[in-house]
Amino acid sequence: MKDDFCLYTLVGKISGLYGVRGWVKVYSYTDPPSNILSYNPWYLKTNNDWQIFALVDGHVHGKKVVACLEGMTDRDVAAQWINCSIEIKHDQLAPLEYGKYYWADLIGLEAVTVTGSILGRVVQLLETGANDVLVVRGEQERYIPFLLESTIKQIDLTKKVIIVDWDLDF
User: Fold this and answer.
1) How far apart are CA 39 and CA 54, in angstroms?
2) Per residue in 19-61, pLDDT tens?
3) Of the candidates 65, 85, 86, 69, which has an alpha carbon nearest to the alpha carbon of residue 22?
4) Which CATH class, in words, describes the domain spanning 103-164?
5) Where do the structural domains in the chain lie, given as residue ranges?
6) Is 1 helix (H, G, I), strand (E, B) or coil?
7) pTM of the prediction?
8) Phi-psi label, residue 120: left if phi above 0, alpha if psi -120 to 50, beta otherwise
9) Cα separation of 20 and 86, whole Å?
10) What is d(CA 144, CA 69) in angstroms, rounded to the nearest whole number?
11) Coil, helix or strand at residue 32
12) The CATH fold of domain 8-92
C-alpha cells in the first residue's frame, strides 16, 4: 500500500518477462536507464492498487534492464505486473547540485513570461536530442526549449513557478 501523504516519482514501468523465474524486463525513465536499479523498494501500480516490492537483483541485459523483485517467483506471478508503473518515494532521489532539476519537479509548475503573462502549466518534458523541451498547456499548447539562462530565466520550486523568456505568439 502506498502512503498518500508521501510524494512519489514515476521512474519506469514493467515492460515484459525475462526467463521463467519471475524476472521482469523494465522500461526505465531514469538517465542512464540502469539508475532505476539503485532505488529500493519499488511501488507498482495496477488497477489503482499499489504494492511495495523489494528489489532483489537486477542488471542491464543488452539494451534492456531486467530485475528480480521479492515475491515474483515465477513467470506467471510476474506476468500480472506487465505494463505497471514503477514509482519510488521522491526522497529516494539523490539531491541535485544547484541549477539541476528532476523532470518530476517541473511538472505542474506554472509557466509565466518575463513580462508576467501566464502561459499555462508544464504538463510534460520531451527529450529532443539538442535540448529538452517543456510542454506547457494553457489557452494553447506551447513547446518551450529548456535552456537555462536563455529561455528559462528562473525556476522557483517553492512558489511552483517557472519564468520564461517566451513570446506569446509562439
Assistant:
1) 9
2) 999 999 999 988 899 999 999 999 998 777 789 999 999 999 9
3) 69
4) mainly beta
5) 8-92, 103-164
6) coil
7) 0.74
8) left
9) 21
10) 39
11) coil
12) Elongation Factor Tu (Ef-tu); domain 3 (2.40.30)
